[in-house]
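Forwarding the complex inputs:
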Amino acid sequence: MRQITGLSNPTVKYLRSLRDKKHRKREQRFMAEGLRLLTDARETGRLPETLVMAERREHHPLLDALIVDVERAGGDVIEVSEAALEKITGKENPQAVCGVFAEFDTSLGKIDRAASPLILVAQAMRDPGNLGTMLRTADAVGAGGLVLIDDCADPFSVEAVRASMGAIFTVPLAQARWDEFRGWLRAGPGQLVAASLRESHDYRTAAYAAPCFVMVGNESRGLPEEYEMECDLRVHMPMRGRADSLNAAVAGAVLAYEVLAKIG
Amino acid sequence: MRQITGLSNPTVKYLRSLRDKKHRKREQRFMAEGLRLLTDARETGRLPETLVMAERREHHPLLDALIVDVERAGGDVIEVSEAALEKITGKENPQAVCGVFAEFDTSLGKIDRAASPLILVAQAMRDPGNLGTMLRTADAVGAGGLVLIDDCADPFSVEAVRASMGAIFTVPLAQARWDEFRGWLRAGPGQLVAASLRESHDYRTAAYAAPCFVMVGNESRGLPEEYEMECDLRVHMPMRGRADSLNAAVAGAVLAYEVLAKIG
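Prediction (whole assembly, two chains):
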């Protein structure tokens, strides 16, 4: 463990820069905050390359275990002032510990369609909170993964990681363009399902089949028509209100739980 | 319609101050942004007291209709520079129009338990995005309202209003302390239901009964034990993952759609 003092230290600057997407992408590193998230990561076999903690902190056996594991793996364990931690995380009263992880491989090969009857797909989901929520839902339903299609929010952003409540470390994650995904999907078994108003079935009585890929679209525009028409099954949920829409992550979860009840 | 120039005009300062909860609560006013939200409001009979728009804007028949209605109702219609609109909304590239509304009465008397088989309840929900999402879900399932228990996020904050996608104007909304809510609930028919791990039933086969009050708890702590034990029915959803939890707004929606399918 080493101490770093001052706010202009190069390591502090480097850590702070990871909050910017541009730097994060260049470095292929991301940050997770809080002992709970870091412990979730450790329990799934992922350790931060760099572990940063406040000089003044309460002792906690899980933090001690984390420090031992990171040092044993050759990682960097750093103590900084609270002011430096505020600079790094961009928050007042930051959590007492955060860690820098290497981004994962998110190629489609990471998805095993035999691992679960259900896989989630999000297309052009722009809100990092929604994206993290989808990861969390994927964890809860035991999905075989989450596939991000086209220009989604960055799943490694602080907001998405936080909203995932640790699921970023546990749920297989892939990123692909539509054509690439479609080619991969059609090269094996898989039923592509989406909520749609076009020639769609009642979502409660529709014939789901494993492995079922449940796809939701962009928050404002929904799915492109071409993507809807590629689906093997289109379903609709009751809309009793005036607005005729649900939050995208909510719609995905309602559908995922229905599929889970039928073929899970 | 009147033009306001300059950023230090008292009206601009007043409008800008409504972004702060303290000022908003004192004035009992809130702001909604964008022609779509304002049109939603107009269609439900709610007009802004003050309508603010950018000098440079595209003409739109719905905006023209809004201007006519606000002026006819004696409201204030104001044109400002884009810089002033940025100051008011706190956003770069703000929407071209926003409106100031008087807060609604949110007493429990606003909830009509005979209006729908389903009413949503959120306890100590702290995230304004989640709260707006709950309003949107309440609209989609045709709920008779959303009841906010204890210290929830402010439903009239810009973030909650935005996440509600107009449902702030369409869904009956009440705010109450737990004891007040419980007294009101028990003075009439109503089944209180919550997700719980204590002596709970499978959410797919549980015996829901109208009017069914579906309650979700705080994002990190869930519901207090006392509140769970007051429920007439406790249910559980499958948790196949490692984290054993769902986003609170997601859990509420999955449960609400199940109740809707059974007794809606």
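The mean pLDDT of chain A is 94.
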